[in-house]
Design goal:
homodimer; about 400 residues; alpha/beta; Rossmann fold; Dihydrodipicolinate Reductase, domain 2; 2 domains; 8-stranded mixed β-sheet; 7-stranded parallel β-sheet; NAD(P)-bd_dom_sf (chains A, B)
C-alpha cells in the first residue's frame, strides 16, 4: 500500500500519465511531475486542469530535476513524499532514477530498457546489462520495481502471461505485433522521441528462436499480418525490449517482435541511415563544429507531441501466441485497438503516447492497492495479469482475444 | 599580356586548375595557390610534382589566405606578383577576391556566381545582384574579369556564341543539357561541394522563356534527352548560372538549363529537403547547440575529391540550339564528352572537376597571350569562342557539333 506519485519526464507519454494519475488522485494522493525543463511540467499540469481531470481536489506540483543525478532525484522523492515513481523520461535516466528509488524505498516503474547514450543495441538480453543487475538490491531493500510497464513492453508481456494462465498448456511461440494504422498528416514524423525511435532500428535485430539469440538486420525479415480492425499490414522483425525478458520466462518458445512500417518510413529511414545521419557519433563540420548527426535529425523533425491534434486512425497491438491445449495445437491472439482521436480528446495526446502512458498508471494503482506491491524487481509477465488487464479496460485500453475456438471476445 | 597565376581554393576543381597551369607554366609563369588551409594547397602541389606536371622548371608555392578578406587577398596578389587570379574557391568569396583584383589590376576569373551564405536563389538575373555591379569599376580600372568560365557556366556560353557566329542566323532557344552518366560506386555522394550542390536545387528554378523570367520548382519539369555516347537520359529543368547571362545577350530566345538526375539522387534529395536537413538556417538541438543542418549533411557525405579514384563512365554536356538558317528552321547540338577515369589518370580528379577546371586555365592562357585580355568585365558569350574552344580541344576537352545537316563532327 503506497501513495503519492512522482512522474519523471514531460514528453507525450508523461502527458498521458499525468492525466490518468489526475483521474485517479483519490487513490494515488499527491501528484508531482519533474523534468529538466520545469516549464514543460507546468504546461502538462495546466492541460490537466484545463480538462478538469483531477478526480478530487489535491496537489499537482511541477519540479525541475536533473534525472541523471541520483541524489537530486532522491531529494525530490523525500521532499514530495512520493512512494511511487513513474519514470517516463528518456531511457538514459533509468538507472539513476532506479537508484534513487532503492535509496528511498519508493516503488519504481519505467516503460523501456535503460540505454547508454554512447551505445546502440547492446548484447542480449538487454535487461541483463543494467536493470537486472539491481534485482538483488531491490529485493534486499524491499523495493517494488516494475520494469517495462508501458504497452510494448508491458501490456504485451501480460498478454503472454494471460495465455499461459488461461488459454494454453504449452507455449511454442510469441509474436508481438505492433501496427499503427493511423495517420498524422505530416510528410514524415516519428511517433515518439526520434532519437530513441531511430536508435531502436539502427542496431542488430535480436530475436529468440530455437532456444538461442538470433541476429538480423532491420527490414531484413518482413511478414504481412491480417489483424482485427486495421486489416492486412506489413510488419518487420525488430529488436524490442520485451523480447529480452519474455525469452527468459518462455525460453522454450520463439519470441519475436514485429513492427509495422510503411514504405515511406522505410525509405526515409534508409536514406538517413545510409548517409550516416542517424549516427550517435559526433562529426566535424567544415567550420570545425562537433555535432552528433542524430541530434540534428531530431531537431528538424516534428515534436511527436505536436502530432496529436491531427492524428487519425487506429493502432492494433497484440500477441499471436501458439502452443498446445489438451495436447492439440492451439493459437490465441490477445490484443488492444486504440484510437488516436479519442486519446487526444481525453488527454491531449496521440494514440501511441496513450497506449504507452495508461499502463504505468494502472500499475501504480495496483501498487497503491497492494495488488502489485511485490517488494522486488519484476518484469510484467511475472505478475498476475488479470487485475492489470481488467483495470486497463476500465481506464480506456480494453483487451480482446481471438481464442483457440476462433471467437473474438473481450478478455 | 599578363603572367603569374594565383589560384584561390584547394578543392577538386583547384586540383585540376593546378595541374593544368603546371602543364602550361612556360606561358603562365610563376604559380601560386592559396586557401584557408595551407596543407590542402601543399597536397595539391605535391600531386602536381608527383605527376611531373610542371612543363618547365619554375615556381609553385602554397599560401594560407582568408579569401573573405579583400586586403589579405590584395596583399597576396602583390607579394606573388600574380597578374592572373583564378578563383575556384567557394562562391561565397567571389566579391572579395574580385575587389582585390580591381585594387591590384590583376585579371579575375571564376566559375560560378557569387553567393551570400545567408540567402538561397536570389532574384534573377543573379549576376545583377553582385558581379555586374562592379562592371563599371572593372572598366574604369582596365581590369579583365571573366565571369563563369568553367564548363557550365563557361564552355556552354561559348557554344551559344559559336552557334550565333557560325551555324545559325537567328536563335530561338538555347537548352543546356548536363548529363553525368558516370558512377562513383558510393551509396550517395555529390560531385562537388554538397553545400553548393544542394543550394542550387533548393530554391526557385528560374528559366528565361517568352521574354520573361519563369519560375518552377525543382524536379517539376523533366524531359528525356537522347545524346551522343551517353544515350537516353532524363534531365530536369534547373536554375543555373549561365541562364542569367545568356538571357541578356539572347533575350529573344528561350534559355533553359537541364541537369540529369537518377531516381536515387532525387529520392535522397527529396527526403533531405522535406525533412529540413538542407536548410541553411540554424536549428537548435535538445541540448541547446545551434547547428546549420546543411553543414551537417555536408559533414557526413563523402568528400567529392575522394570519389575520383573509383569514378567510371562519361559526362556529356552541351547546348541544343534552335533557330533559323537561311530562313529555314535549323538546329545544332554542340557538346563535349569527358571520361572520369581519363581525368583521374591525368590530374587525379574526377570528370566533373576536370570539365570545370580546365576551362579557366584555357582562359588564363588566352589572357596571357592577349587574346582575351579585354580590360573589362565580361561573360564568356561576349568573347570570341573559337580560340577558347580550340585551345580546350588541345587541352583535353574537345568539342563536337551535330550541325544543321545532322553530321556529327569536330567543331
Amino acid at each position: 500500500m503506497k501513495k503519492n506519485v512522482l512522474i519523471i519526464g514531460a514528453g507525450g507519454v508523461a502527458q498521458v500519465v499525468a492525466h490518468k494519475c489526475a483521474q485517479h488522485n483519490d487513490i494515488l494522493g499527491d501528484l508531482h511531475i519533474a523534468s529538466r525543463t520545469r516549464a514543460k511540467c507546468d504546461a502538462i499540469i495546466a492541460s490537466v486542469h484545463e480538462k478538469g481531470a483531477m478526480k478530487v481536489q489535491g496537489t499537482f506540483e511541477a519540479h525541475a530535476v536533473d534525472a541523471m543525478d541520483t541524489a537530486a532525484v532522491a531529494d525530490l522523492i523525500r521532499k514530495t513524499g512520493a512512494q511511487i515513481v513513474i519514470n517516463v523520461g528518456s531511457s538514459f535516466v533509468n538507472m539513476t532514477v532506479l537508484a534513487a528509488c532503492i535509496e528511498t524505498g519508493a516503488a519504481y516503474m519505467d516503460t523501456a530498457i535503460h540505454e547508454d547514450p554512447e551505445k546502440i543495441c547492446e548484447a542480449p538480453p538487454w535487461y541483463g546489462n543494467y536493470e537486472w543487475k539491481r534485482r538483488a538490491a531491490c529485493k534486499a531493500a524491499g523495493v517494488t520495481a516494475i520494469l517495462g510497464v508501458g504497452f510494448d513492453p508491458g501490456v504485451v508481456n501480460a498478454y503472454a502471461r494471460l495465455a499461459e494462465d488461461e488459454f494454453l498448456d504449452t507455449i511454442e511461440s510469441i509474436d508481438i505485433v505492433d501496427i499503427n494504422a493511423g495517420s498524422h498528416g505530416r510528410w514524415f514524423a516519428t511517433n515518439f522521441d526520434p532519437e530513441i525511435n531511430f536508435r531502436e532500428f539502427t542496431g542488430t535485430v535480436y530475436s529468440w528462436q530455437q532456444g538461442a539469440w538470433q541476429s538480423n538486420t532491420m527490414f531484413e525479415v518482413g511478414k504481412e499480418w491480417d489483424l482485427p480492425v486495421v486489416g492486412k499490414q506489413k510488419a518487420y522483425m525488430t529488436g524490442h525490449d520485451e523480447v529480452h525478458s519474455l525469452s527468459a520466462r518462455y525460453s522454450q518458445a520463439d519470441v519475436r517482435f514485429w513492427m509495422g512500417f510503411g514504405d515511406h518510413y522505410i525509405n526515409v529511414f534508409t536514406v538517413l541511415k545510409n548517409l550516416g545521419l542517424l549516427s550517435e557519433q559526433p562529426v566535424k563540420t567544415a567550420e570545425g563544429q562537433e555535432v552528433i548527426p542524430l541530434k540534428v535529425v531530431k531537431a528538424v523533425l516534428p515534436d511527436p507531441a505536436s502530432l496529436a491534434p491531427d492524428y487519425e486512425g487506429k493502432t492494433c497491438i497484440g500477441d499471436v501466441i501458439k502452443g498446445t491445449k489438451n495436447g492439440k495445437p492451439a493459437e490465441v491472439f490477445i490484443y488492444n485497438v486504440a484510437d488516436h482521436k479519442e486519446a487526444y480528446e481525453e488527454v491531449g495526446s496521440q494514440g501511441i503516447s496513450y497506449t504507452a502512458g495508461v499502463p504505468p498508471v494502472a500499475a501504480a494503482l495496483l501498487i497503491a492497492k497492494g495488488v502489485w506491491d511485490v517488494g522486488t524487481m519484476v518484469n510484467v509477465e511475472e505478475l498476475p495479469p488479470r487485475p492489470f488487464l481488467e483495470l486497463l479496460g476500465e481506464m480506456g485500453l480494453p483487451s480482446r482475444v481471438i481464442d483457440p475456438t476462433g471467437a473474438d471476445r473481450a478478455i
